[in-house]
Design brief:
The complex is a heterodimer of chains A (about 325) and B (about 375).
Chain A: E1 4-10, H1 30-40, E2 47-51, E3 54-59, H2 61-69, E4 74-80, H3 86-98, H4 105-115, H5 121-132, H6 138-148, H7 154-160, H8 165-171, H9 176-188, H10 193-209, H11 214-218, H12 221-228, H13 234-249, H14 251-266, E5 273-276, E6 287-290, H15 295-310, H16 313-317
Parallel strand pairs in A: 2-4
Antiparallel strand pairs in A: 1-4, 2-3, 5-6
Helix pairs in contact in A: 1-2, 4-6, 4-7, 5-6, 6-8, 8-10, 10-13, 12-13, 13-14
Chain B: E1 5-9, H1 16-25, E2 30-32, H2 36-43, H3 48-53, E3 55-59, E4 66-68, E5 81-83, E6 86-87, E7 92-93, H4 98-101, E8 107-110, H5 113-124, E9 130-133, H6 149-157, E10 163-169, H7 175-178, E11 186-191, H8 195-201, E12 202-203, H9 208-220, E13 224-232, H10 238-252, E14 258-265, E15 267-268, H11 270-279, E16 290-292, E17 298-300, H12 302-319, E18 325-327, H13 332-339, H14 348-361
Parallel strand pairs in B: 1-2, 1-3, 3-8, 5-9, 9-10, 10-11, 11-13, 13-14, 14-18
Antiparallel strand pairs in B: 4-5, 6-8, 7-12, 15-17, 16-17
Helix pairs in contact in B: 5-6, 9-10, 10-12, 12-13
Classes of the chains: A alpha+beta (about 325), B alpha/beta (about 375).
The complex binds iron/sulfur cluster (SF4).
Chain lengths: ~325, ~375
């Protein structure tokens, strides 16, 4: 039976470089945590393991950082017996989080990767409730392991929400260089899960269609320009990348839409009248609508429409 | 695709028809009480679809033997009648809808020639023209070499004058049909495509040249012909390639023997894409400019379809303006922009096809 005891140690005796048990991700707002500890004290002391006359952290990486931020020389910790083995320490590290709050996806992936040194998917699935505080099946664990093997900074991007679990799962089938290129794109944009998957799908399909590798595609001048533009915001980059990819994936549809929109704009219907062509031009349902607050506005819209009827360009809108 | 495994439903009577198939295949059959062992056998494989193509299940048709072709309300339908002789196919076209249509697909051959005969007898006594095909859920001639069915059907149709049989194929399996007394009531139809598409997307099918050579041989035996450009695939240079195919047709056969030519571009249920991507990793067929059609199938962007159709129709009409060319599943706008007319009334397209059938196959014009 392993046990820990509570004691005060010098922070200087902790080897901060040893992150073998780190499950959580660095807290960007360490100042907040520092302030909280100052106000309320250390509610959950970190856990450390004595090793080679030093201590290595088992859990509480951010709390220790926050104490350093608070300029503390000593810290109250639980120390694990020196004879505790790696597997036991790792379990401590995971359960210290999983029974306090739900592990994030990135933390779960990291945990599973570390545990895989000791347990296979099936064993992890069997023990999942006890370790992760939730039931996981072996197939899902296998997926997580595959994702865990994606190159850096995949996990970091999952943690930050730049790539979703589904996106990561989709990427595992690509070559390492291709994955890195996707990670580069996703690190610079901010897209929802569906948009991420759409970006991957379009790039994959364009490359296959044009018989080029995705690596060659990533050299695309327009895409590079958007990604490398330091001035534009991630959301704007996302929008521009999606537009560009759509243009490349569906060139005729894109051009037709633009052409028709130009023709509609040329009709000068003003801001109050909406003229909408059929979606994707498959049906023949064009719609026109306007709002009017009163009779005068209503009449003005009708007058505009009557004028447009005389415009020869109107017919062109209906002919692609 | 060679048959590796033969299952026979215990419900099938052991008769000449079944014995003929067993002797031709030369495989020891496994008799089963129902389709479950067949499903289990197929589903155990990493590619059940491919496995299904090598696993023949002789069974009884427990549903309707004759049924109407399922059209949709958004796109014009040709009022075709289906003789349900079997399901699935031994060839392996990437775009084949049957891969996603059945769960999982089973290569079924329905035995019971007498059942077909009885059902057809009821059709033959009606005062109405019927265009009947067997190639809706399978290829019409994949079993020509090992079964008596095509011969039986051709001979049945030869005895009446209100129905034509259309045998639609991508094979060159015509030998047993050549010397039959078909009485003009069977047309042999080939689905055609460009050599590019045939080689990249139609695995296990006959080459374009072989299909046309076969067409020439049956034409010489008095059979009328039909051609189906479906699915047409849009890719760089496709217009020219399809036009070349049309030139080829008329090098081999005479326009007056062509009862109709149908055209339609590739369309697919969205879930087929996954199947294609998984089973045909080199195929780029799904990466065209598709939109979701009104029937919830993916279709090429309409202006692209119209552009290709116009080029094809024009080329066909250069050979013979009287050949009946029609669309399978297209809407009013496409008809108007491609042909300059639209068979608007319910049954109008069917009627055009019936007239062509009457003219070419000697069906009773009083039934029109
Ligand atoms: S020949 Fe027809 S039925 Fe056979 S695989 Fe090809 S598309 Fe499917």
């Amino acid at each position: 039976m392993m046990s820990e005891h509570l004691c005060k140690i010098d922070i200087g005796d902790i080897d901060l470089t040893d992150q073998r048990y780190q499950i959580s991700f660095s807290n960007e707002n360490i100042a907040f945590l520092g302030q909280s500890i100052r106000e309320t004290g250390m509610i959950h002391p970190p856990m450390v393991r004595p090793l080679n006359n030093q201590y290595i952290i088992v859990s509480g990486f951010n709390r220790i950082k926050a104490s350093i931020y608070n300029k503390k020389d000593t810290i109250l910790v639980y120390t694990i017996k020196p004879d505790a083995d790696e597997y036991q320490c790792l379990l401590k590290s995971i359960t210290a989080i999983s029974f306090k709050r739900q592990l994030s996806q990135a933390e779960l992936i990291r945990s599973i990767k570390l545990l895989n040194k000791f347990l296979d998917e099936k064993q992890m699935a069997d023990k999942s409730a006890a370790i992760f505080n939730m039931e996981l099946n072996a197939i899902f664990i296998k997926d997580l392991l595959n994702i865990a093997n994606l190159p850096e900074p995949a996990l970091e991007l999952i943690h930050k929400g730049n790539i979703s679990f589904k996106t990561a799962r989709r990427m595992q089938f690509f070559q390492q260089e291709t994955i890195k290129s996707f990670l580069n794109i996703f690190s610079k944009i901010k897209a929802s899960n569906n948009k991420q998957l759409e970006i991957i799908q379009y790039i994959e399909e364009i490359s296959k269609r044009d018989a080029i590798s995705m690596e060659v595609f990533f050299q695309n001048h327009e895409i590079q320009k958007i990604i490398l533009n330091e001035k534009s915001e991630p959301l704007l980059k996302t929008k521009l990348i999606r537009e560009n990819l759509y243009k490349l994936r569906f060139p005729t549809i894109f051009k037709t839409r633009q052409k028709v929109q130009r023709k509609i704009n040329n009709l000068k219907l003003g801001n109050t009248i909406k003229f909408v062509p059929p979606e994707n031009f498959e049906s023949q349902n064009y719609s026109i609508s306007f709002n009017a607050k009163n009779y005068i506005e209503f009449k003005a819209n009708i007058k505009t429409l009557n004028n447009v009827l005389e415009n020869q360009k109107l017919e062109e809108v209906f002919n692609q | 695709m060679k048959i590796h495994q033969l299952f026979i439903d215990n419900a099938c009577t052991r008769n000449d028809e079944v014995d003929y198939i067993i002797s031709k295949l030369n495989i020891e059959p496994q008799w089963v009480d129902n389709s479950q062992p067949v499903y289990d056998f197929i589903n155990n494989d990493s590619d059940p679809i491919l496995k299904a193509k090598k696993t023949l299940f002789l069974t009884k048709n427990r549903g309707a033997v004759i049924k109407e072709c399922p059209g949709t309300s958004f796109y014009t339908c040709c009022d075709y009648t289906i003789l349900h002789t079997g399901t699935f196919c031994t060839m392996d076209c990437s775009y084949c809808i049957l891969q996603a249509y059945f769960h999982p697909p089973i290569l079924q051959y329905f035995t019971g020639l007498e059942t077909f005969g009885q059902n057809l007898e009821q059709i033959f006594t009606k005062n109405q023209i019927f265009r009947i095909g067997t190639g809706e859920y399978t290829d019409s001639l994949i079993w020509e070499k090992i079964t008596l069915q095509p011969k039986f059907l051709v001979e049945q149709f030869a005895t009446q004058n209100n129905s034509l049989l259309e045998l639609k194929t991508k094979t060159t399996n015509i030998e047993s049909l050549l010397d039959l007394d078909h009485n003009g009531k069977t047309i042999i139809a080939w689905s055609l495509n460009t050599p590019d598409v045939i080689s990249s997307e139609e695995k296990g099918t006959a080459s374009l040249k072989s299909r046309l050579e076969a067409a020439k041989r049956v034409e010489a035996k008095g059979y009328k012909l039909a051609f189906h450009f479906d699915p047409m695939v849009i890719y760089p240079g496709c217009e020219e390639q399809y036009q070349k195919v049309i030139h080829q047709i008329f090098k081999y056969v005479h326009p007056e023997n062509i009862v109709w030519i149908s055209i339609g571009s590739f369309r697919f249920m969205p879930r087929l894409k996954q199947v294609i991507e998984k089973r045909f990793i080199d195929s780029t067929i799904c990466y065209g400019e598709f939109i979701l059609g009104l029937d919830n199938k993916m279709r090429y962007f309409k202006p692209l379809r119209i552009k290709l159709y116009r080029a094809i129709i024009e080329t066909i009409k250069e050979y013979d303006p009287n050949i009946l060319v029609y669309f399978c599943m297209e809407d009013e706008e496409v008809w108007e922009k491609s042909f300059g007319f639209f068979p608007k009334r319910v049954g109008e397209l069917g009627n055009l096809l019936d007239k062509s059938a009457v003219r070419h196959c000697g069906l009773n014009s009083l039934f029109l």
